[in-house]
């Protein structure tokens, strides 16, 4: 009888520990807002100064149906200036 009670207690401890560990993993995923291994953002190249930057931080411009991203408003303005001179 004692053996059955001991096995039952060990099983309950196992289940509690398992559920606690699963909860910990899901809270870590929620904290970062993405799954492990998921790409955070795409890197794009500025057509004017030719540096790479995160697309989400860029300045967007649509030129003749093509999306172009710049690292800053200044680079966008200089690019447009150069385009009008050409």
Give a short summary of the structure.
Helix content is 51%, strand content 19%. It is α+β, with helices and mostly antiparallel strands and 86 residues long.
From the structure above, extract its key features:
4 strands, 2 helices, 2 domains, rod-shaped, two-stranded antiparallel sheet, 86 residues
Structural class: alpha+beta
Return Rg in Å.
Answer: 27 Å
Count of the domains: 2
State the total count of DSSP E strands.
4
Please specify the SSE layout and strand pairing:
Blueprint (H helix, E strand, L loop, with lengths): L1 H31 L10 E3 L6 E3 L4 E5 L2 E5 L2 H13 L1
Antiparallel strand pairs: 1-2, 3-4
Task: Provide an overview of this structure.
The protein has helices at 2-32, 73-85; strands at 43-45, 52-54, 59-63, 66-70. With 86 residues, it is an alpha+beta fold. The protein folds into two domains: 1-37; 43-85, Roll (Ribosomal Protein L24e, Chain: T). It has a two-stranded antiparallel sheet. It has a two-stranded antiparallel ribbon with strand order 3-4. Strand 1 (43-45) and strand 2 form a beta hairpin. The longest helix has 31 residues, at 2-32.
């Amino acid at each position: 009888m004692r053996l059955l009670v001991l096995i039952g207690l060990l099983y309950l401890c196992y289940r509690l520990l398992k559920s606690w560990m699963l909860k910990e993993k899901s809270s870590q995923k929620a904290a970062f807002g993405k799954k492990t291994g998921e790409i955070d953002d795409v890197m794009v190249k500025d057509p004017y100064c030719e540096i790479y930057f995160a697309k989400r931080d860029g300045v967007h411009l649509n030129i003749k149906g093509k999306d172009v991203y710049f690292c800053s408003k200044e680079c966008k303005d200089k690019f447009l200036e150069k385009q009008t001179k050409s």
